[in-house]
Amino acid sequence: MLLLEVISGERLPKPERGKMRVHKINNVNKALDFIASKGVKLVSIGAEEIVDGNAKMTLGMIWTIILRFAIQDISVEETSAKEGLLLWCQRKTAPYKNVNVQNFHISWKDGLAFNALIHRHRPELIEYDKLRKDDPVTNLNNAFEVAEKYLDIPKMLDAEDIVNTARPDEKAIMTYVSSFYHAFSGAQKAETAANRICKVLAVNQENEHLMEDYEKLASDVRGSWTHGGSQREEGFGAGFLSCPSPNPPPQWGSAPPTRRSALRPQDINTGWQHLEQAEKGYEEWLLNEIRRLERLDHLAEKFRQKASIHEAWTEGKEAMLKQKDYETATLSDIKALIRKHEAFESDLAAHQDRVEQIAAIAQELKYGPGAANTAPLFPIAAAGTPPGLPPPALTVPRNNPQGLIAAHDQFKATLPDADREREAILGIQREAQRIAELHSIKLAGNNPYTSVTPQVINSKWERVSAAAGRPSGA
After folding, report:
1. Could you tell me the keywords of this UniProt record (predicted)?
2. Domain limits of the chain?
3. How far is CA 135 from CA 86, 111, 118, 272, 354, in A?
4. pLDDT given at position 470
């Protein structure tokens, strides 16, 4: 029963501890029942014969146990245990000189097959080239000693018995060779498992490197979106700084800052979509500016043509009007001068529409003596213009104090509405603070969605109120 537990790796029923014959027979029957439960047919083997010391029956049962638990599980290409073990030996020893395994008796007499099996799996243990076919005892002892010392395979055979026997015992050699099969197959399984573990570790390491690369690339991409936007706008919009526009383009870096940890693919995709939308809006603004400038260029060319024609018409007219030839003219000469002057007045009236057209074009182009003396009305508004965007369009002539006063009054009239909006924003902040305190919610130190605080709003409001000459609390 102990042999069966060791060779099968399973627990058998507890044996009876008595020394009487009946106890021994019961223990042997338990062993035979276990063997039968594994699908092994026991023919002519009884418990009584085993207990009585029948050597033939005992050896037969032991061989049956070895065949079932050590050899029967061997399978190579769906062959039987014996054929599979033989095929395995043939394949492993095929490359070796003087080895031709055809059976489990004569093919193993010279010992070269045993050494070839060991050398095939552990070449550092055997110097196969130094073995001689005419020295079988040395070959066999070498293989048995190496197997026992390095492979934990007990020495089951005797070299002299094998050499001196015409036909060595097939079952004994098969049992011994099966020990090699299990030893090497176990090592091969362990090596396979180790290789798989190495592959898994390599994949995990590669995944970690990929994760690090992804995090770095994602951080660089997000950083380029949030920090490089204003520089790009400065480059693209440098030509339009003097062209006020009622619809300034959106800034690429105007999105609320996000935490560095928010680098998931969906966050990157969302940020990329926002960037595309912002770029599309900026492109539309640029196209509108191009169309506006093309129209202004067309108007300027039209203005130059009409002005040139008008200047050509006015040449000599002022000198003609300043002439004093009427002082010495006769009556007929005076009548001729009157007719000439009436013709000039008619011509002047005809040119009046052209002059009005030129004046209208000049007004649209902001040409004229007053256009060059325009400046931003409020320096605070101009200083607050984001980089890359045109300055505000609110301008008045410097030499027109009444217009400046009127524009200032118009600006002051908008301050109450702005103050109410400021109070509404601060009220929302106070309400959020009250709710957080009511529910004992600990707010983060920095708002992840905006960098503007109530203190910043109040500070800027005080600056605007001071510049407008209005008390900040009014």
Report:
1. Actin-binding, Repeat
2. 2-71, 89-196, 232-396, 415-468
3. 24, 9, 18, 80, 129
4. 62
